[in-house]
UniProtKB/TrEMBL annotation:
Biological processes, Gene Ontology terms: DNA-templated transcription
Protein name: LysR family transcriptional regulator
Ranges for domain HTH lysR-type: 1-58
Sorted UniProt keywords: DNA-binding, Transcription, Transcription regulation
Family: Belongs to the LysR transcriptional regulatory family.
Family matches, as PANTHER family: HTH-TYPE TRANSCRIPTIONAL REGULATOR, TRANSCRIPTIONAL REGULATORY PROTEIN
Nucleotide-binding listed as a keyword: no
Source organism: Thalassospira povalilytica
TM region positions: none
Superkingdom in the source lineage: Bacteria
A Pfam family annotated for this UniProt entry: HTH_1
One GO MF term: DNA-binding transcription factor activity
Keyword check for Transcription regulation: yes
């Protein structure tokens, strides 16, 4: 059997749908289906029932999940330790929030790391929290406090946020009629919603939600309501108007550097960590808001 198919099996078991597994694996859904069919053929049993609402584990599939998880953990541990002992070459995968990665980190990383010809760098603009233990990335920058046990974390920087509306929104729409352009129901989204409630003294109705900052910015610019954006993004958009600044620091976004202990030994990962720390210092100096 192809042992790589176990990863497809576990991700599909967790996601419950081909589309969800494909997004997480960054593969086509047809590839996911083909790998599962190949695995079922190799082990000689049906692992999933194909139902209209998604792919559901069979009894045999449920029994194999813990076994597959143990095999995966051992294989990943082997891979991480091997990579941790290698020279500074190969691919280093860096997970960053999409907008912060594009606007803040990517240009600075490209400049800081250009001298290291033996390394390749892959920037993963991930709105979701990648699993470092599964090597979905080698190193991550997160704008939410890391909660997973066993990871090495370091506070990188703090960035100001503000409550924005489209230019003229607060003059044209009475405040009691304001609506909120928010984020998905995550820890990040909840913190922004709570900050707005504190600032305005009430909770705004929310009909527009997104899982990324850029989409929220477009909602606000289109006049659908007010919303929270980082100052480095909102202040540079002429379509937007700053309604309330985070003057007390309660709404600030904290950026964290996160790496798995096994990967910290990798010379390539250490180079990227140093570059991210230097980039964060430059960002903090430029955006002293």
């Amino acid at each position: 059997m192809n042992w790589n198919d176990l990863r497809y099996f576990l991700v599909l078991a967790e996601e419950g749908s081909l589309s969800g597994a494909a997004r997480r694996l960054r593969k086509e859904h047809t590839t996911v289906a083909r790998r599962i069919e190949s695995l079922e053929s190799d082990v000689g049993t049906k692992l999933f029932d194909r139902l209209p609402r998604g792919w559901q584990l069979t009894t045999a599939g449920q029994n194999l999940v813990p076994v597959a998880e143990r095999v995966e953990q051992e294989a990943l541990s082997f891979e991480r330790q091997a990579k941790g002992d290698e020279a500074a070459h190969g691919v280093v995968r860096i997970s960053v929030p999409p907008v912060a990665g594009r606007v803040l980190f990517a240009p600075r990383l490209a400049r800081l790391l250009t001298a290291h010809k033996g390394l390749e760098f892959e920037i993963i603009g991930a709105a979701n929290v990648v699993n470092l233990a599964r090597r979905e990335a080698d190193i991550a920058v997160r704008m939410v406090t890391p909660r997973e046990p066993g990871l090495i974390t370091r506070k990188l920087l703090e960035l100001g946020v503000g409550l924005y509306g489209a230019a003229g929104y607060r003059d044209q729409v009475p405040e009691p009629d304001w609506e909120f352009c928010g984020y998905e129901d995550t820890a990040y989204g909840a913190s922004k919603k709570e900050w707005v409630r504190t600032v305005l003294g009430r909770e705004l109705p929310c009909r527009f939600r997104a899982d990324d900052t850029e989409t929220v910015r477009q909602f606000i610019a289109a006049g659908h309501g007010v919303g929270v954006l980082p100052r480095y993004l909102g202040d540079k958009d002429d379509r937007l108007e700053l309604i309330h600044a985070d003057t007390d620091g309660h709404g600030r976004e904290t950026g964290w550097l996160v790496v798995h202990p096994d990967m910290r030994r990798s010379p390539g990962v250490r180079l990227v960590m140093d570059a991210l720390i230097k980039a964060a210092d430059e960002i903090a100096e430029e955006f002293q808001i």
